[in-house]
Amino acid sequence: MYKYHLTDVDWGNFFVKDIFEIEKCKCSKVATLSEGNIPYVGATNRNNGVLGFVHGDAKLITKGKCIAFICDGEGSIGYSIYKEEDFIGSTTIKVGRNSKLNKYNAKFITTIADTVRSKYNFGFKRNEEHLKKEILQLPIDDNGKLNWHFMEEYIKERVQKQCTDMKIYYRQRLLALKNCQQVEESIEWGEFSLKDLFIFERGNQNNMALCKSGDIPLISAKKVDNGVKTFISDNGKKLFDGHILTLNNDGDGGVGIAYYQANKIALDTHVTALIPKVKIDRSSLLFISRSITIQRAKFSHGYSLNNNRMKAQKIILPLDEEKRPNWSYMKHFMMNIERQKIECILKYLD
Questions:
Q1: What CATH fold (topology level) applies to the domain 6-151?
Q2: Contact between residue 190 and residue 319 where contact means Cβ atoms under 8 Å apart
Q3: Is 90 exceeded by the pLDDT of residue 116?
Q4: Of the four, 252, 277, 293, 318, which is 20 to 30 A from 125 by CA?
């Protein structure tokens, strides 16, 4: 399948300072910048480091085609990301430059660089001195030099394979959506209690340390990754069948978020399974998950989504002629959105 393999090359150790010229980013007061179209990169490993888009003075801009090293931030310190485009970076970001760097070999290097991030914490910062002394184990050529060609081709092969697989999947999915109908722009809406639509069942995984690695998604009260914390093996506790919603009862930034779960899952004790009382299709469950999630702002650590509050919670849904939930409208509304998104993805991949 692949021409390039990690076992095909020798490896060597390199200091970051021997690979890159290190520069500092320049923005210390992002609050003073107005909204614009220049990416602002800060202490996050999400969204390729982008926290927003701003308008700023040219002197604040850092040129792209570099690796940005995240040097501070809870949960993000130690990560590295490749930036192709120009951006404005927080002073917690340092960048590395090398004329041989491109989006493929940079992806290889950042993956290796991220493996050393565990040594950093609030008591041990990734300052410039520590960054320059980081040791990266990377492929070498016959002369003991950094093997830029291998890193580029290794990643390029896998990116191309992923693109091919995605095209096949999304084209098949697009065929399944070809019969979706357009929906009316004006529709009547009504209130429904969650307890009238779902059975509530709290998760039961209460000792993460004893969970062994496996292939069952463990859903926790996360605000990203559809709630997936890790994958575990069957430990004898109840598993929940797919085609349900999960609702975060608490969690740092995740309380009140609902996710659709297609597959069999395990749930931790900070999450409740919402099991439909009647037959509801996938697209309608996705619609409902958004109707629940848009109310999340009223919950927090001090005001969690307990069982009584779930029973009292109401959501707004479209109505049919008999004043019941309009499942057909919800289904085709979400199918149209999915179709539009898939068409954009396929256009990008082509």
A1: Adenine-n6-DNA-methyltransferase TaqI; Chain A, domain 2 (3.90.220)
A2: yes
A3: no
A4: 252
